[in-house]
Amino acid sequence: MRDLPWRDRFDGALCFGNSFGYCDRDGTRTFLRTLSASLKPGAAFVLESGAIAESLLPTLQTRRWMEVGDILFFSSATYDTSASRLDVEYSFVRGSVRETRTAHTWIFTIGELRELFASAGLVVEQLSSTPAGDPFRLGDPRLLLVARKGG
Q1: Fewer CB within 10 Å: N-end or C-end of the chain?
Q2: What's the structural domain count of the chain?
Q3: Which domain range does residue 35 map to?
Q4: Is residue 4 part of a domain?
Q5: 117: phi then psi, degrees, rounded to nearest 5
Q6: What span, in angstroms and rounded, lies between the C-alpha atoms of 15 and 38?
Q7: What are the DSSP E strand ranges found in the chain?
Q8: 139 and 101 co-located in one domain
Q9: Which residue has the higher pLDDT, 118 or 19?
Q10: pTM to 2 decimals?
Q11: Does residue 141 lie in a domain region?
């Protein structure tokens, strides 16, 4: 995703779910520049994420568990304030078998996103909390950000 081969090829792009924030800040900057280069002038990029500081931090749950069929799922989250990174250890238990992995997600404020997008030639046009376009407010669980490539 940081080395897309196309230039001015796509009419738009989407990044939905928990697919944003897995690269560190430099990697995210590279991704946005590469993505912007692959978009035609005037094309839109829509980002949907719950891992934005204004969404995540006000209600961060540090421990969760759930049972799905015969699988128990546990997670333990730590927010590294010096790196603005969420580190989550996930464990899945099925019978006597336990598997544990750690995921790292870099957390950005909306202000940081505006700057990153602008440096990639993408102008943020809309910040919503729903597909209907309701304005985003602190604590909303999801951000829908619409940006457009300059022409």
Answers
A1: C
A2: 2
A3: 10-56+107-149
A4: no
A5: -65, -45
A6: 14
A7: 10-15, 39-49, 63-68, 71-80, 85-94, 97-106, 122-128, 143-149
A8: no
A9: 118
A10: 0.87
A11: yes
